[in-house]
Amino acid sequence: MTRRDDPAWCTPAHLPEELLGFEGSVRDSLGVGAPGKLGVLELALAPRAGTTRVVRQYQRAPLHIYRPIHLDPHRPDMAFVFLQQQGDGFVQGDRYRIDVDCAPGSAVHLTTQAATKVFGARDNYATQLVNLTVGAGAVLEYLPDPVVPFRGSRLFQRTAVTIALDATVILGEILLPGRVARGEAHVYDLYWAELEARTSGGALLFADTLRLRPGGAGDPGSPATLGGYQVVASLYVVSDRMPPAELVATLREVLAGVPDVLAGVSELPAACGAAVRLLGHTSQAVQAALHAAWDRARLGLLGAPAPGLRKG
Fold first, then answer.
1. The pTM is what?
2. Burial class (CB within 10 angstroms; exposed 0-12, middle 13-18, buried 19+) of 14
3. 224, 229, 270, 277: which one has the fewest Cβ atoms less than 10 Å from its Cβ?
4. Phi, psi for residue 307 in degrees, rounded to 5
């Protein structure tokens, strides 16, 4: 039986040794496994009466959602789900797990209510495990707001996506340099984000890792990482509704007209779609470029433009 109050259930398996080097007893604060440190969210969504509804839900603070809304006039069947986190952000010892199952034929947009803050750590680190399952003919957009790592923070994220062959999935992520107004730009200890996509049968489609460690191997200022840019973002589009070469050409065309960003678009392995990487000096420029790419991909694959998400 699943123990949702078990730290092992909420912690990604096979954490890198580099991260485990930060593992120590948490002093002067709540330790791993204490109430409020294990965030669990389990959702199942399925088509009901012409739209997508939540059919199963379990949430454990600090993770929770409110009632999904249907705000896209071009896709009235799509459920927009806003993930929320009690408190201000990740602190050391936090272990979060999110499991979302999109049934065949469902349409889901999953995002966060605001940017994700990661506070500094002295004795431990924070992790988040996200498991997404997308059934036959389903559509999932997973586009959380940017991550903001504070000075001395340590965060490991793993996103695992299981995709039916005729499903459409759009995944995005943005990493900001930190609290720039306070003079913090890439002064976190470690940021490590892994993404793995597989078919329903378990075959690997693609994997990607972003590992940044200021002052060490993987320093953001290195020409091999961000090369002097401050903000990095990625967009992954998986679908059989458009040939990969055509999707790549479409995304390159729209990004060529977006100013103040360095953009690269390439075909994903297994001819399953396209990947976009964006570098920029400001959050505004990179988010505008990511939105433009999402909008164009949506138009080509779903016949609907990107809607306004009504965030404050």
1. 0.95
2. exposed
3. 224
4. -85, 165
26-63: per-residue pLDDT in tens?
Answer: 665 666 766 668 999 999 999 999 999 999 999 999 99
Query: Which residues lie closer than 8 Å to 199 by C-beta, 6 or more apart?
Result: 162, 163, 164, 165, 205
Type of residue at 122? R
Domain spans in the chain, listed from the N-terminal domain onward? 38-302
Which has the closest alpha carbon to 95: 43, 39, 133, 51? 39
Q: What is the pLDDT of residues 206-220, one digit of tens each?
A: 999 999 999 988 899
Separation between Cα atoms, residue 83 and residue 68, nearest integer Å: 10
pLDDT beyond 60 at 312 = no
CA distance 165 to 270: 11
Instruction: Give the number of C-alpha atoms closer than 13 A to the C-alpha of residue 310, restricted to the C-beta side.
Output: 7
Residues 6+ apart with CB under 8 A from 267: 244, 245, 248, 273, 274, 275
Q: From CA 25, how far away is CA 155, in angstroms rounded?
A: 17
Q: Which residues are CB-neighbours of 63 under 8 A, at least 6 positions away?
A: 39, 40, 41, 83, 84, 85, 86, 96, 98
Residue length of the chain? 312
For 221-252, the pLDDT digits (tens) are 999 899 989 999 999 999 999 999 999 999 99
